[in-house]
């Protein structure tokens, strides 16, 4: 297949880069296929050997290559969720720049009339965190200041995802008086909101520590800040659910009703979007059994009672990852995780944001 194309390919659900599997690696895979130990995404054994294949870095997903064209519908070697997301993603600079431009436009308008009263001279300042927090949002903070002063210097003393205590000086800034005060509010708005998201996420992640359950976000984000808040969730130790309506097929009650049945909805999804991961929401154990039979990448248990949830875990037996959603509070999180579900999606990570108390002061830092 085209090597230039290969450099652009990632797994559609784990986002891991793909590499070509050939030689002894392909031979070993085909032996495993012959032994019946490699399953398709729908749970059925993969029967035919592969002439070409792509594989993820963790070797848990295999993708066929038919006549030089990658078929991005995974054949999995197991049914577990991919490993926890570890390294922080690098936010798309174009998205960050667009977020910043939009925010500055609504704040500056035709210009900062108060800053215009100040002498435009070199100045410095410091960024202070006034409460315990997990820090997230440096790219947006930096981009805001650089949009007004390309020569500003920002010396960070903490990294993204760091847990800091009240009174911590996060960064030193060296620029010009006018641009520092003009960028102050917008840069703090980004940092306090995203650090608030990361801090809340870290509390939920801590509540399930020691279990195999992962904390996921949802699409319940602040308008215009989808990528930013999902990045902040990662800074807080959580994982991302789908980014939008375009990257995962998620069949919910209304979709299933409109399609006529769960099986019909799954069949339509596989036929129309075979390259995308499929999540099916179920409301009872009968729908759970239907979803297991139809096959999907994850099953979402919507508002199951504790008894039904534990029975769902027993019935599923690890064949397909289970997600819990609905009214999930911090207090009941641990018991849900200990029931053996794979992930819990929490809308409140991004919806109920309590901003972190930060301030930007001109002059040298205290002490």
TrEMBL record:
Protein name: Probable nicotinate-nucleotide pyrophosphorylase [carboxylating]
InterPro entries on file: Aldolase_TIM (IPR013785), NadC (IPR004393), NadC/ModD (IPR027277), Nicotinate_pribotase-like_C (IPR036068), Quinolinate_PRibosylTase_N_sf (IPR037128), Quinolinate_PRibosylTrfase_C (IPR002638), Quinolinate_PRibosylTrfase_N (IPR022412), Trm112-like (IPR005651)
UniProt-recorded Gene Ontology molecular function terms: nicotinate-nucleotide diphosphorylase (carboxylating) activity
Assigned GO CC terms: cytoplasm
Family stated for the protein in its record: Belongs to the NadC/ModD family.
Entry keyword set: Glycosyltransferase, Pyridine nucleotide biosynthesis, Transferase
GO BP term (any one): NAD+ biosynthetic process
Stretches assigned to the Quinolinate phosphoribosyl transferase N-terminal domain: 112-195
Reactions the enzyme catalyzes: nicotinate beta-D-ribonucleotide + CO2 + diphosphate = quinolinate + 5-phospho-alpha-D-ribose 1-diphosphate + 2 H(+)
Subunit structure, as described in the record: Hexamer formed by 3 homodimers.
Keyword Transmembrane (UniProt): no
Enzyme class (EC, first level): transferase
Species of the source: Knufia peltigerae
Function: Involved in the catabolism of quinolinic acid (QA).
């Amino acid at each position: 297949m085209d090597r230039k194309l290969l450099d652009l390919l990632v797994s559609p659900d784990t986002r891991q880069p793909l590499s070509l599997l050939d030689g002894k690696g392909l031979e070993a895979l085909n032996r495993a296929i012959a032994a019946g130990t490699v399953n398709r995404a729908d749970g059925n054994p993969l029967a035919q050997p592969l002439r070409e294949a792509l594989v993820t870095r963790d070797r848990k997903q295999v993708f066929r290559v038919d006549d030089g064209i990658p078929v991005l519908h995974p054949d999995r070697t197991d049914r577990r969720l991919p490993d926890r997301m570890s390294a922080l993603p690098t936010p798309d600079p174009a998205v960050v720049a667009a977020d910043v431009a939009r925010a500055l436009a609504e704040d500056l308008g035709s210009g900062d009339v108060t800053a215009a009263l100040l002498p435009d001279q070199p100045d410095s300042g410091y960024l202070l965190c006034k409460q315990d927090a997990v820090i997230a949002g440096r790219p947006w903070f930096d981009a805001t200041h650089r949009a007004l002063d390309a020569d500003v210097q920002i010396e960070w003393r903490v990294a993204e995802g760091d847990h800091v205590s009240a009174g911590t000086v996060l960064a030193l800034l060296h620029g010009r008086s006018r641009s520092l005060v003009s960028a102050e509010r917008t840069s703090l708005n980004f940092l306090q909101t995203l650090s608030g998201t990361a801090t809340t996420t870290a509390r939920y992640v801590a509540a399930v520590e020691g279990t195999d359950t992962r904390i996921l976000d949802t699409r319940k984000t602040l308008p215009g800040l989808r990528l930013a808040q999902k990045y902040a969730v990662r800074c807080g130790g959580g994982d991302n659910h789908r980014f939008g309506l375009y990257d995962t097929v998620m069949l919910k009650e209304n979709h299933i009703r409109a399609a006529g049945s769960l099986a019909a909805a799954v069949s339509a999804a596989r036929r129309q979007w075979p390259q995308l991961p499929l999540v099916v929401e179920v409301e009872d154990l009968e729908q759970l059994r239907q979803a297991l039979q139809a096959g999907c990448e994850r099953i979402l248990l919507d508002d199951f009672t504790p008894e039904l949830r534990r029975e769902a875990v027993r019935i599923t037996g690890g064949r397909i990852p289970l997600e819990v959603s609905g009214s999930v509070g911090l207090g009941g999180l641990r018991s849900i995780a200990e029931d053996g579900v794979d992930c819990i999606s929490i809308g409140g990570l991004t919806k109920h944001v309590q901003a972190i108390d930060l301030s930007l002061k001109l002059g040298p830092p205290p002490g």
